[in-house]
Amino acid sequence: NIKFTSLEELKKQIQEDTKIIKEKQNYVLTFGTFDHIHKWHNYYLESAKKYWDKLITIIATDKNVKLFKKKAPKYSQDKRLWDVKNMNISDIVCIWDEINPMNWLELYNPSVVCLGYDQISFSDLLIDYIKSHKLNTQIIR
User: Fold this and answer.
1) Residue 21 and which of 31, 73, 107, 136 are 20 to 30 A apart at CA?
2) What does the radius of gyration of the chain's CA atoms come to, in whole angstroms?
3) Is residue 21 very low, low, confident or very high in pLDDT (cuts 50, 70, 90)?
4) Sheet strands side by side (includes 112-114)
5) Which residues are CB-neighbours of 72 under 8 A, at least 6 positions away?
6) Of the candidates 115, 118, 57, the residue with the CA atom closest to the CA atom of residue 126
7) How far apart, in whole angstroms, are the C-alpha atoms of residue 29 and residue 11?
8) How many Å apart are CA 48 and CA 113, to the nearest integer?
9) Rounded to an integer, what distance in angstroms lies between the CA atom of residue 33 and that of residue 19?
10) How far apart are the C-alpha atoms of 65 and 70, rounded to whole Å?
């Protein structure tokens, strides 16, 4: 255990630790609705996990499902989150950040983003963001 003399000292240590972790880990990022878990979801996540050390899966919010799919999801985002966690494939499962949707790229700096066949409109935003921020992130479909 380390005792810190100030909050600023603690914050600095957390930033240094985060930098070390990012350098040592390679992340692959996946996105999806996962409204009804089926064998193709399993295949998508298992295939994505083969690319690097840690798989992160981001679940679409109910609001975004309505926006992109033009219909409400059958299950709530919390239920869908629970279902994906219980697949025991992804190392980290989170719900989409509507305030800063690209937060996951900033936070994990993934080596790879794996997209499903139907994630067309989102891929354009993703490509633009990766280019504009000069990230070394590969998109695989």
Assistant:
1) 31
2) 17
3) low
4) 92-95, 54-59, 27-32, 112-114, 138-140
5) 62, 65, 66
6) 115
7) 26
8) 8
9) 30
10) 7
**Paired tokens of 17:** 């630790």
Closest CA to 110 of 15, 43, 30, 42: 30
Measure the CA dihedral 72/69/76/89, to 10°. 160
| Angle, CA of 139, 140 and 141, to the nearest 5° | 125
Half-sphere exposure of 15 (CA within 13 A, CB side): 6
43 Cα distance to chain centroid = 17
pTM more than 0.85: no
**Nearest of 110, 105, 108 to residue 132 by alpha carbon:** 105
pLDDT digits (tens, 9 = 90+) for 78-113: 999 999 999 999 999 999 877 777 888 888 888 899
Looking at the DSSP bridge assignments, the partners of residue 95 are 59
Residue type, 6: S
